[in-house]
Specification:
alpha/beta; two-stranded parallel ribbon; 6 helices; 17% strand; globular
């Protein structure tokens, strides 16, 4: 289920949870999961809620139960290799215009264990010359892992970029069987 806009001024629950790629910052409005961020260690963890509160015009409350219980459960199952598709309400408040169109196409049409090229994704949203803009949309993805920007690669087979770092992208693609597991 997708929600286009979250209410401004509402309360947003947030938490930092462990994952197979390090601590993740999660936040949810009453309408759905609104933010996932990688590398939520102590230094970044303190800045993330404040920045999100400004972006959403909302009060943030730390709580890993309530609204975040199901996202946490599904992420745990994904990283354990037991979940191949997320079934969560998403609040798209932090993505607009072209970026939102690209991210929704990615979420709906690029399944677990597959990859798509930047140019391919541009064609799918009717903008065949917009491969670089697709790359920018991936970098601005407010819901990585759940909206799987790690599945977007270069047309020559290269990994391309990744906001969570290339090692994180490799680990996610290995988890999905696209790349081999590292030897050590």
């Amino acid at each position: 289920m997708d929600i286009e806009e979250g209410p401004r001024g509402a309360t947003v629950e947030w938490a930092v949870v462990p994952s197979g790629v390090g601590p993740l910052f999660l936040a949810a409005t009453g309408r759905g999961l609104v933010r996932v961020e990688f590398h939520a260690g102590e230094g970044r963890r303190e800045r993330m809620p404040e920045r999100l509160a400004e972006q959403l015009g909302a009060e943030l409350v730390e709580c890993a139960t309530g609204r975040l219980a199901e996202p946490v459960r599904q992420l745990d199952r994904y990283f354990a290799g037991a979940l191949r598709a997320f079934d969560l309400p998403l609040d798209w408040s932090l993505a607009t215009g072209f970026n939102r169109r690209v991210l929704r196409e990615l979420a709906e049409a690029v399944p677990f264990g597959t990859v798509v090229g930047y140019g391919d994704l541009a064609r799918r949203v009717g903008q065949p010359e917009a491969a670089q803009a697709v790359g920018a949309a991936m970098g601005a993805n407010p819901l990585p892992v759940v909206v799987p920007c790690h599945r977007v690669v270069e047309s020559d087979g290269g990994l391309g970029g990744f906001g969570g770092g290339l090692e994180t992208k490799r680990r996610l693609l290995a988890l999905e069987g696209v790349l081999p597991e590292p030897l050590f």
